[in-house]
Amino acid sequence: MWALLRRHKYFISIFIAVSVALLVIALASMRNSYTATSAIVLERNDTPMLEAVTAMQGDVRDRSAMETEMDIITSRVFIGRVVDAMNLVEHPWFNTYLAAAREAAEPPGFFDRLFGGSNAPAKLPPLTVQRDQAITMLLSKLSATRTGESLAVTIHIISPDPDLSAALANTVANTYVDWSRSLKKEAMTDAVSFLRDRAAQVAARIAQNEREIAEFSRVNELASDVRDDILRQRIDGMNTQLTAARVELAGVRARRDQGRIVQEGGVELEGTTLTSPLLASLRDNKATLMRERAQYASNLGTNHPQVLKADAELASVDAMISSELRHIVDEMSGEEAIISDRVQQLEAQIADLRATLRQRSLAEIRLRELERDLLADQKLHDLVVGRLGGLDPYAEVAKPSARVVSIAAVPTQPSFPQRSRIFAGGLIGATVLAIVLAVMFEALDMRIRSGQRILQIVGAPNLASIPKEARRWFGRRTPTLARLLEGPRSLYTEALRALYLACRVRLPVAKPIILFAAPLPKDGSAAIALGFAYSAAHDGIGTVLIDFDPPAPDRSGLAAVPPGRALGDVLAGSCRLVDAIQPVADVPGLDVITAFETPRGGHADRRVRSDDMRRVIEDLRTSYDMIVIHCAPVLILEDANWLLPFVDAVLLVVRFGRTTEQELTNAVSRLQINHAPLIGTVLNGVEANAQPGQETLGALNHRRQARAYLEV
Question: DSSP assignment of 202-252, as one string?
């Protein structure tokens, strides 16, 4: 977190500074508001007089009653009384229409005259509209509160004038007390008139009820007798007769149906309950004839005259049985009709008796209702007369339901804005917001800030971390060579020395050729190449630096190349190689060759062949122990890829906090296409305090101790 804050310290500082400036401007433009406070106490219980108005209240006010009182204080009707009492319609702070009219009446300002505007006279709206506006403004500045179950109500008024705040708070409290007294007096007067009218109405209704009860009892014969019991006994007896008749009717219908079924041949006569003396005699005769016929048929044959005679007699008996069955069925039908008529008569008589009994029951119920109404009216009349007798002597006396217990003092300090608290809160909020934004930017930031991240992305180690040059405000940049010479044991020089030592153990051949390049311009690859060559020469290694992308002399500290003595001239045959070599003053063993007089790809307009470049390098290799080549950015020009066949190692310079992960990946991909011998990277411009983790940076991890030791 500390590293993140250090990396974004400028953003956080500027954000906080701008936020504080805006906060100061806002606080300066805020108008002071003063809060005045008054307090009233609601009465715990009401006098007996109020019971006639509010109909039997309890001794203690409940929560809903308290909330109702507070809602009344903040109602528009009550606040309208306060507006009228204070004449706030004439106050421009509450009646905003007045302020608009006054502004319109002022002479046009400079900008109005400049843009052709004019202040047309504003017409005030009707007085009722102005009063409503004043009520709305006062309601927005008024609040009524209470603590817990307390009966004390605190009234707060906010306004830009302390005297006005106190006057309004006291007026609200006093007006509420006076208004509650007047409302109670009006209600009490109305209650007295109501109770008197009600008493007269109840007395008239009592007399009317008594007359109705007497008349109703006479018409319905509701005197006390035993007629109701006799009716109920008769109904029970008839119900018994009705049940027996219905049972008998069901039996007759069943026998009749059996007879009809036997007539139709559905069943045999022997399996039924149908019987009569004649029918029994005929059935016996039929049985005797059937035995005789069976005997004749078995002895004489079926065609014998005796058998035929027996068949004739059986047919005659069957005809007589059928005739008797019809006679029985007809008798049963007649009996069914008689019993059915008796059932209907019993049902009709029972229904009439029940109707009579129901009518008498309803009449008794109605009589009891009339008696209850009479009793209720009598009690109500007694209650009304009693209340009226107790209320009337106090008709001109009314006690308010609240009293003022605290008057508002004139406030001396504004309640808003509390500038110290707002400033402190704004400062803390701006700081927290700046840190949150910094964290968000950090999450979205894909720039390289550690060698470990480089190893994760491209798989190549970071051989050295070069510290960022410490510059003073508005100070000139120190040339690279001067920086090396002035601080031979500085953190910067030691970091370059660490790079040289790390490369020395990784170089595959003697007299190596090392190429330095960067993904994009302004990554400091020229300074790193010069510092690396300086460290090698300082170690006694004869070194030559070939710069294909030289910086300006005031940046590098090297002398400008004389006209006609660049490497391009050597390759063109217009100059000898020995004449293009320039020794570096004060650095024995270090020479510099500038590739072209024109920087940034000056060879593009010359015909430079690879064979010529190979011969130059071979000639230099015979004279020097190490050749350091610095070329243009990999993602801009193809110089690096053109020089790859001639070099033994490649170092890619990455700018701390500037080179992105995508740029590094693209540069490595471009070099790997041509099988570049990439041995590592150099992280340039490192800010040790802005590292995302505890990375091993050598002396950069111990800057204070190193500076004290090196006396830098």
Answer: HHHHHHHHHHHHHHHHHHHT-SS-SHHHHHHHHHHHHHHHHHHHHHHHHHH
